[in-house]
Amino acid sequence: MLERRLLTNVPWSMVALVLGIALFGLSAVYSATYTPTGPSSLFTKQLIWVGLGIIVMFMALIPDYHTVSRYAYVLYALSVLFLVLVAIIGRTGMGAQRWLPLGPFAFQPSEFAKLSLVLALARYFAEDPRQGGYTLRDLGIPAAMVAVPLVLVLKQPDLGTALMLLFTSTLVVILAGIRLRSIVSIAVIGAMVASFVFLVPPVRHKIWTSLKPYQQKRIKAFLDPASDPLGSGYHATQAKIAVGSGQTTGKGFRKGTQSQMAFLPERHTDFIFAVIAEERGFLGASLLIVIYVVFLLTGVEAAKNAKDKIGALMAGGIVSMLSLYVCINVGMAAGILPVVGVPLPLVSYGGTSIITTFLAIGLLLNIRSRRFMLFY
Predict the structure, then answer these.
(1) Which end of the chain is more exposed for a tag (fewer CB within 10 A), N or C?
(2) What per-residue string of b and e applies to 194-216 under the rule 16 or more CB within 10 Å gives b?
C-alpha cells in the first residue's frame, strides 16, 4: 500500500526533465569523444554510468528520507575517511591526487563529500534549531564540519571542489536561518581580510605563492586571457570561440570545428557546454539551460513545501549544490567565470559525478514524493 502511494506521488515531470538533461549529455559526450573508428570507450562508460545512475535515483526513493538523515553523520564520516585514503593511496592524474582506484575504474571521493556534507549540515541544523536565527558563535560545529573535508580536498589539490564545498555549505547555513547581524559581521570581516590580503604586498605575495602553478595560471588567464592565448588562457579562449561560433542554430551534430578537431581542451568534461553551444547553437544551449531552470525551480518548490525542517534543508541544500554547478560550469564556458574544473550535472563525463548527482536527485524526489503522505 505504501509503495503504491509513493509511486503515485513521484513527480514524473521532474523525472522527465532529468532524463532529458541526461540525453543531452550522452549526445554531447558521444560527439566530443567520437573517434575515426566509431564511438569511443568513454561514451560506452558514460552510457553505463547513466544507466546505473537512473537505478540509483529510483533506489533512493525506497527508504524514507528521515531514515537517510539518521545516517547522515555516518555518510559524512565515510566521506572523510575516503578523502584521507586518497591522500595516502590515491591515484594521481593531471597533477592532482583525487581518485581511489577500483579495478579498471576510479572513484572520486570529493564528489561524494559534497552530498554527504549537505546531509550532515541539514541534520545538524534540523536537530539544533535556534529561536531568532543562528549567531556566529552557534556556527562553530558546522564550521568544523566544513573545514575537515575542505582542507583534505585542498590538499589534493582541487580548488574547484573546495569552492563548491564552501559555497554550498554557506547556502545551507543561510537556509537554516542566520541572523542579519551575523551576516553583516561576516561581510565586514571578509572585506577587512580581503583588503588586508590585497593591500599588504608581503601577505599578497605569500598567499599567491602558496597557490599551485596551474592555479596561478588560471587566475591570470581569467583576468587577461589575451596575455597568453596559447598557454594559460588557451582553455578559456577556445571555449569562447566554440560558444560564439555556434551562432543561432549551431554547426550541427559532430560538425563543430573546435570540438571535432580537438582545439577545445577537456571537451567531454569541464567544457562540455561549449560543445553543445557550438553544435546546437544559441537555441540548443538555451533549451538545455531552460530545462535546468525548470528542474531547479521545481526543486525549490519541493524544498519550500517539504513537510518538515530536515526535508526542507536537505532539498534546499541539494538544489543549491546543483544550481552552483550549473552556473559555474556555464560561466566557465562563456568566459565570465574563472576555470575551476566544475562538471556540468548529468552532462559532463565522469562516473562518480554522474552517480552522486543521480543519488542527490533521487533524495530530492524522495522528499517531494512524501510531502502529501501522512505517515512514513
Answers:
(1) N
(2) eeeeeeeeeeeeeeeeeeeeebe
